[in-house]
Amino acid sequence: MTEAEQLAILRDQIDQIDQQIQTLINQRAQCAQKVAEVKQASGGDVQFYRPEREAQVLRRVMERNQGPLSDEEMARLFREIMSACLALEEPVKVAFLGPEGTFTQEASLKHFGHSAVTTPMASIDDVFREVEAGAVAYGVVPVENSTEGVISHTLDSFIDSSLKISGEVVLRIHQYLLVGTNTRRDKISRIYSHSSSLAQCRKWLDQHYPTAERIAVSSNAEAARLVQSEWHSAAIAGDMAAQLYGLEKLAERIEDQPDNSTRFLIIGNQEVLASGDDKTSLMVATRNQPGALHDLLEPFHRLGIDLTRVETRPSKVGAWNYVFFIDFAGHAGDEKVQTALKEIGQRVSDMKILGSYPKGVL
């Protein structure tokens, strides 16, 4: 059998499989429409998007995956199918820290899929206000980077907000050196980026562009926009910004830490049911007395609850008073967690459960 004959047979098989896939996707979409009809018939406040349900589906997708596609790639494909099916019920409206082309937009699309209706906002405060006003169902904000640490503005926004955390997204951050058509590699004298990205690429910049001026701007996307038409300038930004603004990649993955990642929070107004693999975020204010921190953390240790993060922020109610932001494994509805929360509530001056939500699916 000739090569052409073998390829013809394989391509015919691919065409048949594509037809089967298309038929099954449409069958799934029809089921999604029926789900919407059942929910609407029940009356009341209909919640079409269920974070715990979607997390369970994606986990099963990865568990039964046998390759050759990776678990993450298979989950990404199913995320888009789920997003398109959900849009038949009601498109999810999402606000994110903009402008367009930022890593926060990339995190939004990774979590909700490209069928979601996403709106860029100028600041973290604006994202919170948009969700609180009911203009969108959810918001996406960065909360910490594996290299640069916590984004304090996001944590501080929870102090006065009634919003809940309904999910998280962990995004691997790859930085690129980008230029427009007017700039040559050997003539770069200015490099624009967000201050965090400049810090994440500090060693690379010291080695390759030690004399170039480093200029911090409001976002990586803004940096990409600036260098579209400037001479002798470059931007550090992500792949989405490069595509959006039509820039050339002079260097790829220039971040100093190869595992550089940023964690984003999904904020909304509704509490999320247990998915089977969850996290809970808690904000507490301790009394100003010896052993206060020990009393706060002791129930977690005794009950075997895994703490994943503890951050301290200044309180807004007095000098040298602090609030603690705590993330731990488990759902607020779990019996063991309820025991811990009851004990902690008796030991602190104030406590707010920021939300229980599915752990991020990588």
From TrEMBL:
Residue span(s) of domain Prephenate dehydratase: 93-269
Gene3D superfamilies per record: 3.30.70.260, Chorismate mutase, Periplasmic binding protein-like II
Domain ACT: 281-358
Reactions catalysed, as given in the entry: prephenate + H(+) = 3-phenylpyruvate + CO2 + H2O; chorismate = prephenate
Ranges in a coiled coil: 7-34
Domain Chorismate mutase: 1-93
Organism: Oceanospirillum multiglobuliferum
The keyword Ribonucleoprotein is annotated on this UniProt entry: no
Entry-linked CDD domains: ACT_CM-PDT, PBP2_PDT_1
GO molecular function: chorismate mutase activity; prephenate dehydratase activity
Protein name: Bifunctional chorismate mutase/prephenate dehydratase
Alphabetized Pfam families for the sequence: ACT (PF01842), CM_2 (PF01817), PDT (PF00800)
Cellular component GO terms, alphabetical: cytoplasm
GO BP, one annotated term: chorismate metabolic process
Function: Catalyzes the Claisen rearrangement of chorismate to prephenate and the decarboxylation/dehydration of prephenate to phenylpyruvate.
